[in-house]
Amino acid sequence: MADFLGSVWWMIVSLGVLVTFHEFGHYWVARRCGVKVLRFSVGFGRPLWSRRNRNGTEFAIAAIPLGGYVKMLDEREVEVPAGERAVAFNNKSVWQRIAIVAAGPAANLVLCIVLLWAMFVIGRQDYSATIGRSAGMAAAAGLNAGDRILDVDGRAVATWAEASMALTTAAMDRQDARVRVVDTLDNTHTRVLPLSTLPAGFDERTVPVQAGLAWQFWLQPAQVESVTEGSAASGQLQRGDLILAIDGQRVESADQVVPLVQQLGERGGPGMIEVERAGQRLALELQPHKAPGEASKDRWLIGVGVVGQAPAYDARQQYGPLAALPAAVREAGRLASDSLGMMRRMLTGHASVKNISGPITIARVANASAERGVDWFLYFLALLSLSLCIINLLPIPILDGGHLLYYLIELVKGSPLSERAMAAGQYVGLALLAGLMGLAFYNDILGLVPR
């Protein structure tokens, strides 16, 4: 319950900050262009609070905190007195209208850079791209435990997340990755990871694992966190037990438990689970059971939740106030390139549409980021702000990008589009947005279903 409330709260805070900044961009440029703004609303629906300034603009906070809007004086929406026609939005030049519409996404881009700047000044803590265990494809390529990845295909990486993203990008493009590493003796090597050989339909979310890589910070002792009532482990294992071996195979880290239990289940029959409890080593016989509802593939469980104690961070990205600005600009450019690249790959079929997420995922990530600290929450806000900028610039009617498309057409043809053409575009935009939101909600809900 606490996680749910925390997720809802941090989502409201996140969207409130980003939407306010976005709409302020529209408002600020509109006022500079001489447009009369009727209302500046954060949220939709009935206003919970409102106040009017000397220019006649009503500032409001509404009941539904999932967006916002700036309402300008426009002859296409209301009857405008003759004395105010000059301050109506529709009577401004096409370049002024372009500036007003583009100001929202531009404000989100500026906010993204400011948030990244603040994050770098504070210092973002993370884990380095150090390999903890190598197997399969990675071991065959010459990558070893203790190697720290410096760059992938010439793209420098400072953390495990950046390395994972670079490897995932290469895998989605069906390309082998040139990985430059420094080993434990400070010698530098370049290895080729044959990611193009991954099978069709591979899970894009676990590319490093499928390549045989386990990051060093993953490799923590496997401690039992919970025991499911009525399961094979019930009455045998206890919370706090340290799992040492499964069916005679040594367990060095928490990430080994699931595959070893799977092997035990596939072998058939009971197996011995060795644990350390209160300083004593115990050997317990357990019979894995098949997970319910698994039709396509057998998945074996023993009924325990295992957690590895998170180690201390070993990487920190921090700059002084001046050096943080170009670093923030570079990071914003990298994030934008990754986002646009992912969109392109989804359109061409090289990436799954499962990567599209909605408000449920945003809420969960917002809560998780806030729990990790101010640095990570600033990073999350920056990424979300950049995403809003990019999405709003898509040439879909209803979005800012759709309006910009109308104005570009007006520049080319020398006159505005007809009301009928714009209305048709609005319906198309609504259909596209409804489909996109439906897919996002579907992916969100699917992500809540245990696998």
Summarize the structure in words:
- By secondary structure, this protein is of the alpha+beta class.
- It is built from eleven helices and 18 strands.
- α1 crosses α2, α1 crosses α8 and α7 packs across α9.
- It is elongated and about 90 Å long.
- The two termini are 21 Å apart.
Features:
four-stranded antiparallel sheet; 451 residues; single chain; alpha+beta
Topology:
Elements lengths: L1 H31 L4 E16 L5 E15 L21 H29 L1 E3 L4 E4 L1 H5 L7 E5 L2 E2 L3 H13 L4 E6 L5 E6 L13 H4 L2 E3 L7 E5 L14 E5 L2 E2 L6 H11 L3 E7 L2 E7 L2 E2 L9 E2 L2 E4 L7 E3 L6 H25 L10 H14 L1 H19 L7 H14 L5 H30 L3
Antiparallel strand pairs: 1-2, 3-18, 4-9, 5-6, 5-7, 7-8, 10-17, 11-12, 11-13, 13-14, 15-16
Concise structural overview:
Helix content is 43%, strand content 22%. The chain has helices at 2-32, 94-122, 136-140, 160-172, 207-210, 257-267, 324-348, 359-372, 374-392, 400-413, 419-448, and strands spanning 37-52, 58-72, 124-126, 131-134, 148-152, 155-156, 177-182, 188-193, 213-215, 223-227, 242-246, 249-250, 271-277, 280-286, 289-290, 300-301, 304-307, 315-317.
Low-confidence stretches: none
Cα end-to-end separation: 21 Å
N-to-C order of helices and strands: HEEHEEHEEHEEHEEEEHEEEEEEHHHHH
Please tell me what the overall shape is: elongated
How many helical stretches? 11
Classify the helix fraction into a percent range.
40-55%
Mean pLDDT: 86
- Strand-residue proportion: 15-25%
Structural class: alpha+beta
Quick one: biggest sheet? 4 strands, antiparallel
Query: Radius of gyration in whole Å, from Cα?
Result: 27 Å
Number of strand segments:
18
